[in-house]
Every structure is written in structure tokens, then in C-alpha cells.
Amino acid sequence: MDGIYLDYAATSAVRPPEVVEAVARYLRDVGATPGRAGHRLALEAGRITLRCRAALMELFGAEGDPGRIAFFPNATYALNAALFGLLRPGDRLVRTAYDHNAVRRPAALLAARGIAVTVAGGRADGGIDLDELDAALAGDARPARVLCLPHASNVLGTALPVREMAERAHEHGAIVVVDAAQSAGHLPIGVAAMGVDVLAFTGHKGLLGPQGTGGLYHRPGVEIDPVSAGGTGGDSMPLAMPDAMPDRLEPGTLNGPGIAGLLAGVRFLQERGVEAEHRRESALKLRLRERLAAIDGVRVLSPAAPEGVGIVTIASDRIPPDRLAWRLDHEHGVMTRAGLHCAPEAHQLLRCAETGAVRFSVGWATTTGEVDAAAAAVASILEDARETSAAARG
Ligand SMILES: Cc1ncc(COP(=O)(O)O)c(C=O)c1O
Question: Which residues pair with 177 in a beta bridge?
């Protein structure tokens, strides 16, 4: 790729060659859809899909039937399926101020349908007050049915204490739904150890798969009602969706080539080791953060948070975020993301909701040289902006 890609939190646009080859091989040599026939190509497609479910179960520290992984086109669909499939009018949802619109907007739709929604407060350091969370879970009239939280914030890069939050939620009888869009592939995840009942993930970020992949894990004992219905390739006579997973939540044709690529991405990560990858990305993040913080005119908004994901978000009074991102790309080949990152409440915590910010995010292929070059590019643009505004002042 030409340029320096530092937008991995949006999509891992730089992919391991194994992923590209797996998609090409599927399209070239397999081509059929899993679960839609008994011929050899459909069976091979089914084997790939099953391997991908099993690899994801292993990656998430989940035991048992790989059918507990249902595929969706992305984390947004998976989160909608979980929230709409779990909550009924009269129930209460507790969510956090760090939520992406993939949770915030479904929560607003649910609120319009008679589900009470409580937002647990956040802080600029990415933390959460567990006593406040307790009060939010207890509620005035009835305890929460679901606690939904992001494992890692896509704006601050910080990770929430999932295990402690899940413990509190379970004390109140709530189901814990974790949005792992930013953490899957970047942070070790153990659903059983962390007390996660439902986990939504996306394929195109840390898991290094193609766009159009993502899914949902839910543990046995948690019932998610289907919110979409349609063909499942078998058991076709009944009007109701089958009880068996994953068919229950997976109507329609699956994204076979995408799932083949996702399997290759997960295997690539398993070979590298998620823990090792986290340490590497965390070191790059801290290096970038330190270099950016040393630049006159830069306000680093995201906390250092070595235990979080590889995100550094900045702002500057000298140049609007979209202009800075544009100049970084067009003058220095550095690709970042400006704006509110679909999580305006997190920007409110950082007091930059009026303007937004510029987010740098590292990934599996990022090097120290790239991080240093990105910081040097910011320094050069801000110096130029300072000179320009000094000249304008006369
Ligand atoms: C925290 C978080 N949740 C959910 C999403 C949505 O993911 P997807 O693009 O797979 O729907 C994102 C993507 O930016 C995210 O950062």
C-alpha cells in the first residue's frame, strides 16, 4: 500500500496476504453456499464456515458447540439482533456513555418502543464508577434486564473493566452484552472468565477479515429471539425459525467468501498470539502518543491506557480536525479519521463534541517508522498553521 495507514479502528485496510488468498480461493474453487445443498461444493463451503465458527469460539475462550457463533454482516447487525432479541417493552437497558451509534441508535429505537434506557456515566479517563453503575442497574422501579458495554472505546482507546461490570450486572440479574468491535483481535477475550453472556464482534477490524463479516456469540442458557426470519436451508416447512443455533439467528445466504477470509484472519492472529499483538500495538500507541504530546499545539485527548487498544485521538486549536486529517493524507500520505467517530457522547466526555477530533489507530502491520513519520507530519502541519496564522495577524 502507498502511504501510512493509521485507520485500523475503522477497518484493517491492510490485510495479511493469507486473507486475500483465502477469499480468492473460495471464489475460485468453492463458490457455493454453506447449508444450501448436499453436493461437494456446498459441503466444502459448510466445512469452512464451521472451521471459522470453531476458530472464533477458541479465540473468545468459549467452549462447546461452534453453532453458538452466528454470522451477521457486521457488529452493528449483531448488536441490533442481540438488543432487539433480548429486550421487551417494560424492560430496562443500561448502556454506557462510551457507546458507538451501533448501540446508541438501536437503544433510541428501543426507547421509542417502550424499553427504558439508562446511560451509565463515563469519564475523560475512560473509566467507570462501579457504584454509579450499580445504581443504574438497580433502577428506581425495576432492575435492568440487559447491560450493554463496549469492551474498548473507539474514541479513547481505553478498555472497560468488563469482569467487574459483569459481576455487578449479574448481581442484579442482568444479561451482559459486550460490543467487542474494537477489541476482538486486539485484546485477549475470555467470555467465560470475563462473565460475558453475549459478545458482538466485527470481522473487518482487528480480526483482519473482509467487510461484510461479523457475528454474535451467546452462551447456552441465554435466549435471543430472532428479529429477522427467512430461509435456513433445512427444516423448511414450519413458519417459525428453527430452535437450533446458528440457524435460529441466521436467515438467508451467508457471506461465504467473507467468512473464508475471516477464518484466515483469525488463524493469522492465533499464530501471532493476541496477547503478543496487544503488547506490540500498545507499545506503538504509547510511542505515538508521546511524540504527538511533545508537539506544540497538539492536545492529546485519549489517555495513555497501555491496557487499552491502539488508538490516539488528538485536537488542535490551530487547525480543524477534518483539515488536519486532509493535509496529513494529501501532503504526507498519512491516513487517519477525523470527526465524531459515530460516538458523540465519548467526544462530549473529552469536551470536543463541537469540533470532533483526529483519531490515529495502529494495527498488525504498523511499524515504529510509520508512527514516527505520522508524528513528524503533524508537527510540520501545525508549524505551518502557526506561521500562516501569525502572517495573517500581520
Ligand atoms: C465500538 C464500535 N462498535 C460498533 C462498531 C460497528 O462495527 P461495524 O462496522 O462492524 O458495524 C464500531 C465500528 O466502528 C465500533 O467502533
Answer: 148, 198
pLDDT in tens, 174-216: 999 999 999 999 999 999 999 999 999 999 999 999 999 999 9
What are φ and ψ of residue 329, in 5° steps?
-70, -55
For ligand 1, whether the C-beta of 96 sits within 6 Å is no
Ligand 1, pocket-test mutation among 202, 302, 340, most atoms within 8 A of CB: 202
Q: Which of 72, 158, 182, 302 to mutate to test the pocket of ligand 1 (most atoms within 8 A of CB)?
A: 182
Q: Where are the beta strands (DSSP E) in the chain?
A: 4-5, 69-72, 92-96, 116-120, 146-150, 175-179, 198-202, 214-218, 299-300, 311-315, 334-335, 337-339, 357-361
Q: Give the integer Cα–Cα distance in Å for 101 and 79.
A: 10
* pTM score of the predicted model: 0.97
Nearest to 242 by CA among 227, 229, 252: 229
Ligand 1, atom 16: closest residue by C-alpha = 154
Helix axes 368-393, 274-293, angle to 10 degrees: 20
Q: How far is the CA of 204 from the centre of ligand 1 (A)?
A: 10
* Residue 251 phi, psi dihedral angles, 5° rounding: -75, 150
Task: Give 14-25 pLDDT, tens digit per residue.
Answer: 999 999 999 999
Q: In this predicted model, what pLDDT tens digit does every residue of 247-292 receive, in sequence order?
A: 999 999 999 999 999 999 999 999 999 999 999 999 999 999 999 9
183 CB within 6 A, ligand 1: no
